[in-house]
Amino acid sequence: MPIILIFGSERDNQLYVSVKERAIMKTMSTAFFARIISTACLILTPAFASAQVLITPLSVDSSAPVEQALQENKGYASTSIEGQGSKLRLTYQASEPVTIYMVPLSAEEHFVPTDFLMLTLPATDGGSAEIDLTVSPGWTPKTTKWLLHLMTKTEDTNAGFSAVEFLPASTFTIMNTAFWHFFKQEPYTPSSYHALRGYRVLSRDVTMIIGFLVLLASILTIIFAKKGTKLMALVIVLFTFQALYGLRFGFDLLRFSSEHLTGYANGMYDEAGSVYQIAPSLRSLVVQDKKSEAETTVFVCRSGTNYKEKILRYFSYPIRISSDASLTASADYALVMNSRDWNVQTVSENGVNKQFLQCADLKLEATQIATFPDGSILFSLVR
Amino acid sequence: MMQSFLPFLQIFLILLIEGTALALLLLPISTMSLAIALGLPLSALTNVLLVFLYTVTGVPLTLISITMGHLAILGALILLIYLRPQFLMDLERPVKEPKKRLSTVQKSIIIASLLIIVMNAGYSFVHAILLPTVQYDSATNWTMRSEISFVDHHIAFDADESRGMAKPQYPFLFHALQITANQGQERWLDTAANGILYLLSIATFGAVFLMIRKLHDSVHSVATLATIISIPLLGLHLAQGYGDLNLLQYFLLSLCCLGMWIESTHARRHRWLMLSGIFVAASVWTKSEGSVFGLLPWLLTVSLICGRNKQTWKEAIPAIIVTFALSVPWPIFAWLQGLSLTPHSSDTMLQLHLEGVKEALIGLFGRGSFGLTWYALMVLVPVFLYGGWKHHPAVKRPQLPLLLWGSVMFLEFLFIYLATPNVRFLLNAESFYRQMMIPAAMLILACSLCIKPKAEKHL
Fold it and tell me: Whole-model pTM?
């Protein structure tokens, strides 16, 4: 059963707000600077009644997680809401946690993939959640239309929203948000080597804003600098702007370095995931099974891009790594990696339990060998 | 770890000594530090020529063949130095800059520049040395092809992607260097592959710093280096793995040498031009773009510098001949092998694509790939040209032709992306940005060289 969105009448909403208002304001004043209630905590907390939770959503770097979530969750609904405010208060009930991906839309109904927010509403018999919208770099103090994707694990979820309210942003909130937007990290993805998204503050391109200032400063320098020093003054002014931007980006380079080192040490290097653990595991297996690397084939069961497959191929060469279904007949191993369409079935044949890996339309007799931190699973195939 | 490090160190030292010996024979006058800094960039070229020779003669790429080849080159160079010491460069003792009180502005420039360089250097070290390859194209066109070639013992020219390799039409200076750096390893070592490129970057930027310092001073030099490295997309590429960075590095070296040639009054000043041409030839061996965006604009720039001066043309012609002689084998080989001479087969279908104009403007002046770079260049380049025309005392007029290279390259790229099917790589944010960082860096360097220093230097 899909999620049913129920909105009460405007009068009901007003009444609801006025009854709760003082309690909410009090909650906000004490919790305002103690911001975050992590979504993990919310998931662990079972149903709560008539309480309010403050949610600081996670910022999502691209639309890929959204697409993946859409594939994985059985219950789904989408809607759009429009309003002006830094927080969104949802009054709702839900029999199980509801995952929401939401993104601000431009006037032309477009969205920027790095503007997505992800949050999970806890199950409740009746309560409300306030979502901090300013986390999205696309947030703006102006009236904005938001696209919401709502998902649940099961199809028979009962959920409804009785009130949707945008809470106005104070001047301090706007200024604070602009400050933190400027220091939001540049997204690092496999496509970053081709182009960088850049910094946005209150949905505005920072480069263009500062670029305009650069041109203005240049004109003023040329006009007001002393004769004979105009050129050097101009060079110094331009260098100053370039250096400040360079320092800002340099700060992100250090953040990338720290994150990637930590991720790699934990077996999860950015979007390559656990490829760097899978490759040596494959090689060890080949040696253990007394095979030749050049004559070993690993079938990759995946959905979406072939990015991880290509990285794994490089680190495993000359072991043949391929998602080509025609190779399964000769494949020695199978690797489930970022796949949304797979499962393992146990079938009893002549009193013997056999395991079968189902990957899309393929069915391969397989034995699970290893799992990796990014969720990849390695199977040995029975030929 | 030592088991892997020692063979790498041995190969690196052979390349470094070989390249330094070559630099000592090619430079007219220099410090040892510049000769050493130019060592690896030069030996990367001799390395690809050696690997090319082995490729056409069918000699397998093994530890023995590559090491012996380089030792033979080194031996020949040492013999030449021994027999003809007069060919050696004049050794220039490092001149200690007179201790002068730095102004607050100069101190601020130094601090900001060093911070930018340190941040970028730190990121580069972490991603090139401590972390493995993670970039998509690196695991296909670039380092993957090097690995396959290493295992095969010859350069791979796979026409399909069954082994994971793409773009057989790419020249292979990048790949040859990685293959050589892995000799002596039991199996392909990603760290060695990225490590040698990391060292190449250090050498290149070090050489650029030293050459600018010869023309100006340390403050000017470090500020120029920081300005170039502060181009955000360039900083990201310091993690290595893509040939665009190596192409850019060779262009910068070539441009610097052109600047030295213009300024030099030494009897053997023509050697700066020769070096410039050699680095352009190296760029032709690095990426297909090296010929159209390197060799061609270089020729135009040299022609502009020579003008109607017969004496200058006398210096230029041998350098042009040598440059062509070093460059031409690759396109001839590619043509004979039936490989495309351009990165993409549809590169020569001409048609105006106005839908790309808005995206190009947003890309250059918005988002994050270039930061404020193109705003600054949009102001500076016309100002320098105007200043040169008006004989402004702060503009070094003889260096102004250096602006031509970056400008021509910029226009060429715009043409490629707005007048051919390559517009798709602009609209889907692929190669446009990383190619445009090259003219950006070149124009920054050219502007820097066009600034007249307070104290004239004699080279």
Answer: 0.90
